Amino acid sequence: MQVTELSADGLKRQFKIVVPAGDLSAKVDERLAELARTAQMPGFRPGKVPVGLLKKQYGQALFGEAVEQAVNSSTAKAIEDRGLKPALQPRVDLKQLEEGKDVEFEVAIEVLPEIGKLDFSGVELDRLKAVVPDKDVDEAIGRIAKANREQKPVDPPRPAQKGDAVKIDFVGSVDGKEFPGGAAQDYTLELGSGSFIPGFEDQLVGAEVGKAVDVKVTFPADYGNTELAGKDAVFKCTIKELHEFVDKPADDELAKKNNFENLEAMRKAVAERINQDYAQISRSMIKRQLLDKLADVQKFAVPDGLVEGEFNAIWQRIEEAKKAGEKLEDDEEKMRQEYREIAERRVRLGLLLADVGRSNSIEVSPDELNQAVMREAMRYPGQERQVLEFYGKNAELKERLRAPIFEEKTVDFIIELSKVSDKSVTPEELLEAARKAEKDDDKADQPAAS
Q1: Longest CA span, the chain
Q2: Does position 447 have pLDDT exceeding 50, yes or no?
Q3: How far is Cα 448 from Cα 333, in angstroms, rounded to an integer?
Q4: How many helices (DSSP H) and strands (DSSP E) are in the chain?
Q5: Would strands 177-190 and 124-130 be described as parallel, antiparallel, or unpaired?
């Protein structure tokens, strides 16, 4: 095998490789000898078929097989000998392919950049930390108490009021025709909950048990069912039962009903949960801040092929948004430039985090991967077992969960090495800062509205 380097431009390399005809011929002869030991043909005993006949019948296919193996193995050796790390599959261009002659082909590859050792001690980050005030815990406990309210029949009888629970039968129609999904029996609805389309619940206020009520509403223009969106409808309703809610006090009995030892234990658990939620928001913000700083500082070259792949994935979502009727910026060329820059940023940060993780022996343990599978399963209540079995049978799919865990661990590693200044803020200030950061992200990563 003869390898000649044709060009080395940035991350791109191109080689010419020549595989001697004798090597290919020897490989074909070797395969023919293997076939001859077991080959069967009419008129010949098994294993006694002349090699010449086998070559006449299978020679072309075996030559193609030998060429494929030679191209793969010689390309891999050329890359290994030079210590290159391909970013994508090499592109092979056959220049000469004729039996009895040397095979000549060119290989073009893009390699991963050499990032080198990085010092994160100079990276300065601000971490917002919110302390949960008692009023937030009180409100959360109040929501738990509301969720545990009991219902009792209204006695003496009276018309329905906002806040009551009504059991109703209803049939909906548009232009006098009933529509699928527009009817139900014994449906319990809390008046004022806003769970039905606007205006529906208001028209049941004042209704009496046993009496029919025609509820006239207009479906919202953006209603999920496009056949009903924006149309006027009439729901013939009958109130069958009327209940009022009985508030439950926030006490030890309520706590025990929710599997806590007492009210103090429930308050502590609620406070911890709220703290965790705020901590997650804070962590997301400092991660965003870190990535922004890294993107501003790290400007190493990235493989064009990886950028193109990332851009195509982004642009596909843009095209889908267009088909869905979303109004986008008129200047498509400007959009393409913006999203290509976003694609390059994503690729650069991905390569950077991958390099930092590998060079610092950051790994994802089997337990962490299993916990990720469990979290996925919990997203599908009632189907947890099926989800677990699905991941158990699909190792490749399970491995896809490894990348985000690896990324988060690497980000945590870098944050630990950075200069982090903690700043105490109110929950309102934290949420406002998070909304602003998310809005800024939307401008950068989502289709620009015209």
Answers
A1: 105
A2: no
A3: 13
A4: 12, 11
A5: unpaired
Any bridge partners for residue 13, and if so which? 8, 109
pLDDT tens digits, residue range 177-193? 999 989 999 999 999 98
For residue 10, give the DSSP letter. Answer: T
CA angle 378, 379, 382 (to 5 degrees): 65
Sequence letter at residue 103: V
Does the pLDDT value for residue 323 go beyond 90? no
Nearest Cα to Cα of residue 217 among 181, 182, 190? 182
Q: Where are the alpha helices (DSSP H) in 298-420?
A: 304-323, 332-359, 366-378, 384-393, 395-399, 402-417
Residue 362 amino acid letter:
I
pLDDT at position 62, please? Answer: 86
Sign of the torsion angle spanned by Cα atoms 347, 349, 354, 356: positive
Distance, in Å, from the CA atom of 405 to the CA atom of 372, rounded to the nearest integer, reads 8
In whole angstroms, how far apart are CA 422 and each of 26, 119, 124, 128, 434?
Answer: 70, 21, 11, 6, 16
C-alpha 325: how far from its chain's center? 23
CA atoms within 13 A on the CB side of 79: 23
Residue range 391-428, pLDDT digits in tens: 989 888 888 899 999 999 999 999 999 999 999 999 99
What's the rounded Cα separation, in Å, for the pair 291 and 309?
21
Are 167 and 186 in contact by the 8 Å Cβ rule? The answer is: yes
Whole-model pTM: value is 0.72
In this predicted model, what pLDDT tens digit does every residue of 118-148 receive, in sequence order?
899 999 999 999 988 899 999 999 999 988 8
What's residue 321's pLDDT? 80
H or E element at residue 139: helix 134-147
The domains found in the chain, sorted by start residue, are: 2-110 (3.30.70.1050), 150-246 (3.10.50.40), 255-445 (1.10.3120.10)
Residue 165, strand partner residues? 190, 243
Task: Show the CA angle centred on residue 79, arms to residues 76 and 81, nearest 5°.
Answer: 105
